Amino acid sequence: HQVLHIVPETFQQVQHLQHLCSTLLLDLWKPFLPQDICVGEDLHIRVPAPLVKEVKDSLDQHMISYKVLIPNVQELVDQSMPRERSSHRQAPEGYVYTEYHPMEEIYQWMIQIQKSYSELVTQHYLGKTVENREMYYLQISQPSDKTKKIVWMDCGIHAREWISPAFCQWFVKEILQNYKSDPKISRFLQNLDLYVLPVLNIDGYMYSWEKERLWRKNRSPHMNSGTCYGTDLNRNFNSSWGSVGVSHNCSSEVFCGSGPESEPETRAVAQFIEQKKSNILCYLTMHSYGQYILTPYGSTTEPPSNSEELMLVAKQAASALVGKYGTSYQVGPTSLILYSNSGSSRDWAHTIGIPFSYTFELRDKGTYGFLLPSNQIQPTCEETM
Amino acid sequence: DIADVGHKYHLDLVLEDVLAKDTTVNCTAEVLYHLGNQNTAPDVQFTLEGELRTTAEADNLFYNQIKSLDKVLVAENIPDSQGSVSPAMEPVHLLAWVASGYVIWQNSTENTKLQLAQIRRVKQVKRSDEYLEFDYLVLLHEMVSQEIIPWQMTVLWHPQHGVQVTQHSCQPQHSLE
C-alpha cells in the first residue's frame, strides 16, 4: 500500500480526485472527507497495492502531479510496532513449522495466518465433521479482475499421516513468506488461486493425538454388534465406490462406509469441489508414507484420457524432488504400482473432469513410516515444495 | 512362474547400512513364494558381494549396559508419537527391527507388504545364562490392507550368537486397548 501526496491546482483536478476517491473507495488520510479536498491544500491518500497502478495512471491522464509519501505502509507499521524479532514479517509469531501440532493449534494458526496476510488469505468454512467440528480451508488469492484457475490441496485425510498436515502448513507459510521475493511464486499467484485444506479428517487427527496414534479413519460410529468406529474417507468418494480394494466391514481399516459420500467430511469436500470444478485445474491430496506420486486410477488399470500428460507432469515433479535431497519418488497409477482401491478422492476428482489429479505419498519408505521424526519435517517439506 | 510350485523372483539389491548411510553392499537373491500354501514362509537364498561392517564394539557396549541394570528394562511406544527414539532405546529399537524382519519373512506372501510401525511394549526377561531376552509387543503395518497388526515376539540376543526369535504370535487387535 502506498500513500500519495497531491496538491490539487485546479477545481477540475479537485473534482476528479473526489470522483476517484469515492469510486475506488480510497482511504483518505488528509483531509478525512472528499468534500474537504481543496485547491492548494495537501491531500494524502492511501492506495491499496492492487489499485496503485490504476490510480497513478488516472492521475497522469489528468495531469495531476503527485509524490509518493509512503512507499510501503506495511513496512512502516512493522517498524513502529515493538517486535521481538526482525521487522521481517513472520506470522504467526513463533509458530514452529518443524514440529507436529495438535488440531487446536492448527485452528489458531489458520486464524493468525489470515490476519497476518489478509491481503492474500481468506479462511472459509467447508462443513462439519461427524463429531461436529468445523472444517476450514484457506484461500490464497491475489486480487485481480480476471477469474483464475484453482489448485486445490488437501492434507490429513488419514489421521496417522502426520507429515501431511505438517506439509500443508509449511506450504502455506512458504508461499506467503516468499510471494513478493520469489518470481516463480509471484507468477504462480498472478495466474492461479490456491485452496488449501490443512486437515480434512479432523476428528481422526485429534483421536490420533489423544487416544491411538496409528488411527486412520474418521470417527463415525457403526452399529455392528457393539459399536465399531470409522470409515476410510479415501474409500468413501463416489468413484467406483465399494468395488475393489475396500471392505464392507467397519472393523477394517479400508471400510468404505455405508454408501458413497456417506461421511460428512467427504460430502463437505465433494460438494465444494463439484461446485468449483470448471475452474479447478489441479487436485492434490497429500498422504504418507511410501514416496509415490500416484495418478488415476486405483479401481482399474484402464489409463485415464490424459494419461501421458499426467505422467509427464508427475515425472517432472519427481525429478525436481530428487534433486533436492536425493529422495526418490515412484510415479504411476495406483492400480499398477501400489494396489487396487476404489472410492479415492483423487480418482473421483479426475472422473468429474479435473484434469490434473494426484496423490502424494510423502516420506519415508517404512523406516519410520507414520512415525516420521519431526526433524524430517523440514527436509520433507522443502523437497516437496 | 514355476508350474505346481510357485513364483520365483530373482533380485538384484543394494543394501544400505541404516547406521552408516554411505556404506552399501550389493546383494543378489532368489525368493520363491509357494503356490497355494500360505502357511509356509517364502524360500530365500542370497549372496552378499562384500562384507558387512563389524559392530562388535557397539554390541558389547549394549550388552554390558543391559547386564548391569538393577531392574529389568521396560519401555513403551518406540518411536513415540513424534517419531523420536531416545539414544538409550536405539539398540532396543534396532533389535526389534531385526527380529520383526524374521517375523515378517515368516508371514509374507506376494500380496503383503509388512513394515514395523512401532514397538508398543518391551520387557526384558531375566535369564540365568549369558543371553539377553526381550519380550516385545510390536505393531506391524500391512500396506495393502492398511491394517495395524499387534505381534508378540520373544527375542534372544547375544553379541557373538546373534538374534533368535524363539516364539512369536499375532495378537487380536483389541489387545491394544
TrEMBL record, chain A:
GO terms for molecular function: metallocarboxypeptidase activity; zinc ion binding. Residues 99-385 form the Peptidase M14 domain. PROSITE patterns: CARBOXYPEPT_ZN_1 (PS00132), PEPTIDASE_M14 (PS52035). GO terms for cellular component: apical plasma membrane; extracellular space; side of membrane. SMART domains: Zn_pept. It holds the Pfam family Peptidase_M14. It is a lipid-anchor; GPI-anchor. The keyword Metal-binding applies. One of its GO terms (biological process) is proteolysis. Gene3D superfamilies: Metallocarboxypeptidase-like, Zn peptidases. It is found in: Apical cell membrane. It comes from the Eukaryota. This is Carboxypeptidase O. It comes from Indicator maculatus (spotted honeyguide). The gene is Cpo.
From TrEMBL, chain B:
SUPFAM superfamilies: Cystatin/monellin (SSF54403). InterPro entries: CYSTATIN_LXN, Cystatin_sf, Latexin. Keywords: Protease inhibitor, Repeat. Residues 1-54, 74-177 form the Cystatin LXN-type domain. GO terms for molecular function: metalloendopeptidase inhibitor activity. Belongs to the protease inhibitor I47 (latexin) family. This is LXN protein. It comes from Indicator maculatus.
